[in-house]
Design goal:
It is a single chain. Helix content is about 15%, strand content about 45%. The chain is mainly beta. The chain has one domain (about 1-130). A hairpin with a 4-residue loop joins strand 9 and strand 10 (about 125-130).
């Protein structure tokens, strides 16, 4: 989906999201940023991520190709310049593979960050990082 999102815009983006995820995505949604995960701390993490702003809030979409090899207590959140921001944690990772959609809490401004993390809270280490552009 990551490649598709880069090549389409506006209404076409909203339509693509409506048909590919079961989330409250509406016409007029805008891509805030996107990227591709790379593994960290000897973990294998891969796949695309897209951050989308909708009329009802901001969503993080882990693409169909998302995959994490496994770890205890994986969380999702934003970071900047190589540092995970625990105040920008958005959710517990619900499954290790595939398409997933998470709502960003109202107090987290996704546009202030240039990275997205899969973070092991138990050991305070990154499992995967995606640079956002």
């Amino acid at each position: 989906m990551h490649g598709i999102l880069k090549s389409i815009g506006g209404a076409a983006l909203a339509l693509a999201l409506l048909f590919s995820v079961s989330a409250p995505v509406q016409a007029g949604s805008d891509v805030v940023s996107s990227g591709t995960f790379r593994g960290a701390s000897k973990h294998v993490t891969s796949g695309g991520i897209t951050v989308v702003k909708t009329a009802t809030g901001t969503l993080v979409i882990l693409d169909q190709d998302f995959s994490l090899d496994g770890a205890p207590d994986p969380k999702l959140g934003f970071g900047k310049d190589g540092k995970y921001d625990s105040a920008a944690k958005i959710a517990h990772l619900s499954k290790k593979t595939g398409l997933q959609v998470y709502k960003v809490p109202a107090g987290v401004d996704a546009s202030k960050y240039n990275e997205f993390y899969v973070w092991c809270e138990k050991f305070s280490v990154p499992l995967g990082v995606a640079s956002l552009k």
